[in-house]
Amino acid sequence: MLLLLGSAQTASMQTLRERIETLVQAIEPQVADVPVTSAAQLLKANPPPLLLDVRSPAERAVSIIPGALTEIGVPPAGTRVVIYCTIGLRSGIRARELRTQGLDAVNLRGGILSWLAEGGTVVDTQGRPTRAVHVYGRRWDAVPDDVDAVW
Hints:
The protein has 151 residues and is of the alpha/beta class. The chain has helices at residues 2-27, 39-44, 57-62, 89-100, 111-117, and strands at residues 36-37, 50-53, 80-84, 104-108, 122-123, 129-130, 132-134, 148-150. It has one domain (2-150): Rhodanese-like domain (Oxidized Rhodanese, domain 1). A hairpin with a 5-residue loop joins strand 5 and strand 6 (129-130). The longest helix is centred in the first third of the chain and has 26 residues, at 2-27. It is globular and about 45 Å long.
């Protein structure tokens, strides 16, 4: 029985990743000129880069990736800034803007949805772990089964 449950969870996660990939491919042409990093790469980064959440205040009020900032000044030279939103469009646009200012800014491909699908965590405004995330709208309700999507 455990083996079957594991297989079902694997299939469910594969379906989730495919759904996120479809959402990413829909927006990617609009930010194709912006370098990206994956959630898997970000989770392994040591030390972690500077994270910038460009989602709306209402979205950030539900949860945020631990350590992410909501605005940045001028980071130290050589600092990589990884920018994220729900799926990658708003963050790709912001990364493009920051790159024109000379910053090493990259887009988190798949945004917070990919982050969660790869096992990343989120915290509430008090820094406490939560399993809720604002997904911008019903169309982007692509989160793991144990995460509550809000829109």
